[in-house]
Amino acid sequence: VKDLLIHFNSLQNKFTKTVPSSFTSFKIGCMSDTLYSLLPDVLYDLALYEPNIPPVLHTFFSSHLVKTMEENLADVVLGIETLPKGSNIEYAEILKTPLVCVCDQTHPLSEYKNVTLEELNDQPLIFLNYGLYDDLIALQLKVGRGRNADSIYLCDDLPASITLVRSGFGVVLLPLIFIPEALDDIKPIPVSDCPDMSFGVYFKPNQNN
Protein backbone atom coordinates (compact mmCIF):
# COMPACT_ATOMS: atom_id res chain seq x y z
CA VAL A 1 0.00 0.00 0.00
CA LYS A 2 2.85 2.39 0.83
CA ASP A 3 4.38 1.80 -2.62
CA LEU A 4 1.01 2.48 -4.25
CA LEU A 5 0.65 5.75 -2.34
CA ILE A 6 4.14 6.90 -3.32
CA HIS A 7 3.48 6.08 -6.97
CA PHE A 8 0.10 7.81 -7.18
CA ASN A 9 1.32 10.84 -5.24
CA SER A 10 4.16 11.24 -7.74
CA LEU A 11 1.57 11.61 -10.50
CA GLN A 12 -0.43 14.37 -8.82
CA ASN A 13 1.46 17.32 -10.34
CA LYS A 14 0.93 15.94 -13.84
CA PHE A 15 -2.69 15.15 -13.02
CA THR A 16 -3.53 18.69 -11.93
CA LYS A 17 -2.42 20.05 -15.28
CA THR A 18 -4.43 17.61 -17.40
CA VAL A 19 -7.79 17.08 -15.67
CA PRO A 20 -10.50 18.79 -17.77
CA SER A 21 -13.86 19.94 -16.40
CA SER A 22 -15.52 16.98 -18.17
CA PHE A 23 -13.59 14.49 -16.04
CA THR A 24 -16.46 13.08 -13.94
CA SER A 25 -15.02 9.85 -12.53
CA PHE A 26 -11.72 8.05 -12.07
CA LYS A 27 -12.11 4.50 -13.42
CA ILE A 28 -9.74 2.03 -11.73
CA GLY A 29 -9.43 -1.52 -13.01
CA CYS A 30 -7.91 -4.47 -11.17
CA MET A 31 -6.91 -7.87 -12.55
CA SER A 32 -8.48 -9.46 -9.47
CA ASP A 33 -10.99 -8.22 -6.92
CA THR A 34 -8.56 -9.27 -4.18
CA LEU A 35 -6.47 -6.22 -5.18
CA TYR A 36 -9.18 -3.90 -3.86
CA SER A 37 -7.72 -4.40 -0.38
CA LEU A 38 -4.69 -2.36 -1.52
CA LEU A 39 -6.74 0.70 -2.42
CA PRO A 40 -8.41 2.27 0.66
CA ASP A 41 -5.47 4.53 1.63
CA VAL A 42 -4.91 5.48 -2.01
CA LEU A 43 -8.58 6.31 -2.57
CA TYR A 44 -8.69 8.28 0.67
CA ASP A 45 -5.82 10.49 -0.53
CA LEU A 46 -7.41 10.88 -3.96
CA ALA A 47 -10.68 11.99 -2.32
CA LEU A 48 -8.83 14.67 -0.37
CA TYR A 49 -7.10 15.83 -3.54
CA GLU A 50 -10.19 15.87 -5.78
CA PRO A 51 -13.45 15.23 -3.84
CA ASN A 52 -15.68 15.85 -6.86
CA ILE A 53 -14.25 12.99 -8.93
CA PRO A 54 -15.52 9.69 -7.47
CA PRO A 55 -13.62 6.45 -8.09
CA VAL A 56 -15.29 3.68 -10.09
CA LEU A 57 -13.86 0.19 -9.53
CA HIS A 58 -13.94 -2.69 -12.03
CA THR A 59 -12.34 -6.12 -12.35
CA PHE A 60 -10.89 -7.10 -15.72
CA PHE A 61 -9.10 -10.22 -16.96
CA SER A 62 -5.64 -9.59 -18.39
CA SER A 63 -6.83 -10.87 -21.78
CA HIS A 64 -9.26 -7.91 -21.92
CA LEU A 65 -6.65 -5.31 -20.96
CA VAL A 66 -6.13 -3.71 -24.37
CA LYS A 67 -9.86 -3.50 -25.13
CA THR A 68 -10.52 -2.13 -21.64
CA MET A 69 -8.05 0.70 -22.10
CA GLU A 70 -8.81 1.47 -25.74
CA GLU A 71 -12.55 1.77 -25.04
CA ASN A 72 -11.85 3.99 -22.00
CA LEU A 73 -13.50 1.52 -19.62
CA ALA A 74 -10.63 2.23 -17.21
CA ASP A 75 -8.24 5.14 -16.72
CA VAL A 76 -5.72 2.90 -14.97
CA VAL A 77 -5.50 -0.86 -14.41
CA LEU A 78 -3.52 -2.53 -11.61
CA GLY A 79 -1.95 -5.91 -12.32
CA ILE A 80 0.98 -8.02 -13.37
CA GLU A 81 3.03 -6.84 -16.36
CA THR A 82 1.67 -8.72 -19.35
CA LEU A 83 1.38 -6.18 -22.17
CA PRO A 84 0.87 -7.66 -25.64
CA LYS A 85 3.31 -6.60 -28.34
CA GLY A 86 2.29 -3.58 -30.36
CA SER A 87 0.08 -2.13 -27.63
CA ASN A 88 -0.01 1.65 -27.20
CA ILE A 89 -0.66 1.25 -23.47
CA GLU A 90 2.09 2.22 -21.05
CA TYR A 91 3.05 0.40 -17.87
CA ALA A 92 4.79 1.67 -14.73
CA GLU A 93 6.16 -0.80 -12.20
CA ILE A 94 5.25 -0.29 -8.53
CA LEU A 95 6.97 -3.32 -7.01
CA LYS A 96 8.23 -6.86 -7.55
CA THR A 97 6.13 -9.72 -6.20
CA PRO A 98 7.15 -13.39 -5.90
CA LEU A 99 5.21 -16.34 -7.25
CA VAL A 100 3.99 -18.47 -4.34
CA CYS A 101 2.38 -21.83 -3.78
CA VAL A 102 -0.69 -21.31 -1.59
CA CYS A 103 -1.78 -24.15 0.71
CA ASP A 104 -3.88 -24.41 3.85
CA GLN A 105 -2.15 -24.33 7.24
CA THR A 106 -2.68 -28.07 7.83
CA HIS A 107 -1.03 -29.08 4.54
CA PRO A 108 2.39 -30.83 4.78
CA LEU A 109 3.91 -28.13 2.57
CA SER A 110 2.99 -25.47 5.12
CA GLU A 111 6.19 -26.39 7.01
CA TYR A 112 8.36 -25.49 4.00
CA LYS A 113 10.13 -22.13 3.72
CA ASN A 114 10.12 -22.46 -0.09
CA VAL A 115 9.26 -25.07 -2.72
CA THR A 116 10.25 -25.94 -6.27
CA LEU A 117 7.92 -26.79 -9.14
CA GLU A 118 9.22 -30.37 -9.04
CA GLU A 119 8.10 -30.69 -5.41
CA LEU A 120 4.55 -29.97 -6.56
CA ASN A 121 4.45 -32.98 -8.89
CA ASP A 122 2.53 -35.14 -6.41
CA GLN A 123 0.25 -32.37 -5.15
CA PRO A 124 -3.34 -31.83 -6.32
CA LEU A 125 -3.36 -28.51 -8.17
CA ILE A 126 -5.98 -25.80 -8.52
CA PHE A 127 -5.92 -23.94 -11.84
CA LEU A 128 -7.65 -20.77 -12.94
CA ASN A 129 -9.62 -21.06 -16.17
CA TYR A 130 -8.87 -17.39 -16.80
CA GLY A 131 -5.28 -16.44 -16.08
CA LEU A 132 -4.36 -13.33 -14.13
CA TYR A 133 -1.66 -12.97 -16.77
CA ASP A 134 -0.40 -15.01 -19.74
CA ASP A 135 2.69 -16.43 -18.03
CA LEU A 136 0.54 -18.00 -15.32
CA ILE A 137 -1.47 -19.87 -17.95
CA ALA A 138 1.76 -21.17 -19.49
CA LEU A 139 3.06 -22.21 -16.06
CA GLN A 140 -0.16 -24.06 -15.25
CA LEU A 141 0.14 -25.99 -18.51
CA LYS A 142 3.77 -26.85 -17.72
CA VAL A 143 3.07 -28.07 -14.19
CA GLY A 144 -0.09 -29.93 -15.22
CA ARG A 145 1.46 -31.76 -18.18
CA GLY A 146 1.04 -35.55 -17.88
CA ARG A 147 -1.19 -35.39 -14.81
CA ASN A 148 -4.38 -37.32 -14.30
CA ALA A 149 -7.46 -35.16 -14.64
CA ASP A 150 -8.60 -36.09 -11.13
CA SER A 151 -5.56 -34.31 -9.62
CA ILE A 152 -6.46 -30.94 -11.17
CA TYR A 153 -9.31 -28.68 -10.07
CA LEU A 154 -10.50 -25.81 -12.26
CA CYS A 155 -12.18 -22.60 -11.15
CA ASP A 156 -13.15 -19.32 -12.79
CA ASP A 157 -11.53 -16.76 -10.51
CA LEU A 158 -9.00 -16.20 -7.77
CA PRO A 159 -11.41 -16.11 -4.78
CA ALA A 160 -12.79 -19.48 -5.89
CA SER A 161 -9.27 -20.93 -6.01
CA ILE A 162 -8.55 -19.68 -2.48
CA THR A 163 -11.82 -21.27 -1.30
CA LEU A 164 -10.72 -24.64 -2.71
CA VAL A 165 -7.32 -24.27 -1.03
CA ARG A 166 -8.96 -23.49 2.33
CA SER A 167 -11.19 -26.56 1.84
CA GLY A 168 -8.15 -28.82 1.45
CA PHE A 169 -8.52 -29.69 -2.23
CA GLY A 170 -4.96 -28.75 -3.22
CA VAL A 171 -2.54 -25.90 -3.82
CA VAL A 172 -2.60 -22.97 -6.24
CA LEU A 173 0.19 -20.90 -7.82
CA LEU A 174 -0.35 -17.14 -7.53
CA PRO A 175 1.55 -13.86 -7.28
CA LEU A 176 1.89 -13.03 -3.59
CA ILE A 177 0.30 -9.58 -3.92
CA PHE A 178 -2.99 -11.15 -5.09
CA ILE A 179 -3.48 -13.09 -1.85
CA PRO A 180 -5.74 -11.52 0.80
CA GLU A 181 -3.67 -10.73 3.91
CA ALA A 182 -6.63 -11.16 6.25
CA LEU A 183 -6.76 -14.93 5.76
CA ASP A 184 -4.76 -16.68 8.47
CA ASP A 185 -5.74 -20.25 7.55
CA ILE A 186 -3.66 -20.33 4.36
CA LYS A 187 0.07 -20.08 3.81
CA PRO A 188 1.89 -18.65 0.76
CA ILE A 189 5.23 -20.40 0.10
CA PRO A 190 7.72 -18.84 -2.35
CA VAL A 191 8.48 -20.93 -5.45
CA SER A 192 12.26 -20.76 -5.56
CA ASP A 193 12.74 -21.68 -9.23
CA CYS A 194 10.36 -19.04 -10.59
CA PRO A 195 11.38 -15.38 -11.02
CA ASP A 196 9.66 -12.48 -9.28
CA MET A 197 6.99 -10.69 -11.31
CA SER A 198 6.48 -7.01 -11.95
CA PHE A 199 3.31 -5.52 -10.45
CA GLY A 200 2.25 -2.05 -11.50
CA VAL A 201 -0.22 0.25 -13.20
CA TYR A 202 -1.30 0.42 -16.85
CA PHE A 203 -2.40 3.68 -18.41
CA LYS A 204 -2.82 5.35 -21.80
CA PRO A 205 -0.17 8.02 -22.52
CA ASN A 206 -1.35 11.59 -22.96
CA GLN A 207 -4.98 10.63 -22.44
CA ASN A 208 -7.38 13.53 -21.96
CA ASN A 209 -10.44 11.85 -20.44
Question: How would you describe the overall organization of this protein?
Answer:
This protein is of the alpha/beta class and 209 residues long. The chain has six helices and ten strands, in the order ααβαβαββββαβαβββ. It has helices at 2-10, 12-18, 40-49, 65-70, 134-144, 158-166; strands at residues 26-30, 55-59, 76-80, 90-97, 99-104, 125-128, 152-155, 172-175, 186-190, 197-203. The strands form three sheets. Strands 2-1-3-10-4 form a five-stranded mixed β-sheet, covered by helices on one side. The protein has a three-stranded antiparallel β-sheet with strand order 8-5-9, with helices on one face. A two-stranded parallel ribbon has the order 6-7. Strand 6 (125-128), helix 5 (134-144) and strand 7 form a beta-alpha-beta unit.
Features:
6 helices, 209 residues, 10 strands, three-stranded antiparallel β-sheet, alpha/beta, five-stranded mixed β-sheet
Number of strands: 10
Counted by DSSP, the helix tally is 6
Order of helices and strands: HHEHEHEEEEHEHEEE
Instruction: Calculate the terminal CA-CA distance, rounded to whole Å.
Output: 26 Å
Low-confidence stretches: none
What amount of the residues lies in strands? 25-35%
Cα shape: globular
Determine the mean pLDDT.
83
Largest sheet: 5 strands, mixed
Determine the fraction of residues in helical runs and give it as a percent range: 10-25%
Compute the gyration radius: what is it?
A: 19 Å
Decide which structural class fits the backbone: alpha/beta
Give, in spatial order, the strands making up the sheet with the most strands.
2-1-3-10-4
